[in-house]
Design goal:
Structural class: alpha+beta
Low-confidence stretches: 1-5, 32-40, 56-61, 76-83
Number of domains: 2
Largest sheet: 6 strands, antiparallel
CATH superfamily of the largest domain: endopeptidase domain like (from Nostoc punctiforme)
CATH architecture of the largest domain: Alpha-Beta Complex
Number of helices: 9
Distance between the termini: 45 Å
Helix content: 25-40%
Mean pLDDT: 77
CATH class of the largest domain: Alpha Beta
Oligomer: single chain
Length: 220
């Protein structure tokens, strides 16, 4: 990615956008595999280029390319440096279980999409759980109702371990079921519903505590 900072700083709007789009994959890699550089940030940065470059407050002669470069450096210092830490998991938790949770955490912020089961398309709840397990070569059912029967039953909140599949009765999805992954310390991660994104939740929240109906274990 060799280029002249001087030339880039003097570039116009089209050149700045072209550079950004051409090298977006590199920016995603630099920003924790893309998790800290979602599409919304790309849109924000580009909108900022246009807004700031046309601002009367900027002295004449400052080009959009230079504005973009400054914004990119700022995002690199703030956005890319704000990696969300992984949850604290019990030392005795199986290695495979920890890796499943790590895979799930890599998708924090991924959009919800009905029928989705990949980072590129987005996830529904069961597609997200299935994908996280698949990253460790473990095949599990795709449908929520089937996930609620896979593996062996474990008592909710008692002896839960990372990567246990949590089953909730919430009136959504097949048979009104919803699934997520336990991550440890009373927390879980899931793809909630339309218009939302993959996030973590606490089982101490009344809604989730009251709708939790079971947990299934596939990794020992």
């Amino acid at each position: 990615m060799a280029f002249s900072f001087g030339t880039f700083c003097a570039s116009g709007e089209k050149q700045a956008k072209k550079f950004f789009l051409k090298n977006l994959f590199i920016l995603r890699l630099l920003c924790n595999g893309g998790q800290n550089f979602p599409a919304s940030i790309m849109k924000y940065l580009y909108a900022s280029i246009i807004s700031l470059s046309s601002s009367s407050r900027l002295r004449k002669g400052i080009q959009p390319g230079c504005v973009f470069l400054c914004l990119l450096v700022l995002w690199g210092l703030v956005g890319c440096g704000s990696r969300r830490p992984l949850p604290v998991m019990p030392a005795q938790a199986p290695v495979a279980a920890k890796k499943i949770v790590e895979s799930a955490y890599s998708q924090l912020g991924a959009r919800y999409r009905s029928g989705g089961n990949s980072p590129g398309k987005g996830f529904d709840c069961s597609g997200f759980v299935q994908w996280a397990y698949s990253q460790q070569g473990i095949a599990i059912p795709r449908i929520t109702a089937d996930q609620a029967r896979t593996g062996r039953l474990v008592a909710p909140r008692e002896g839960l371990q990372p990567a246990d599949i949590l089953v909730f009765k919430n009136g959504q999805g097949p048979r009104g079921l919803h699934t997520g992954l336990y991550t440890g310390d009373g927390q879980f991660i899931h793809s909630p519903s339309k218009g939302q994104r993959v996030r973590t939740e606490s089982l101490d929240v009344a809604y989730w505590k009251n709708s939790l109906v079971g947990a299934r274990r596939l990794v020992n």
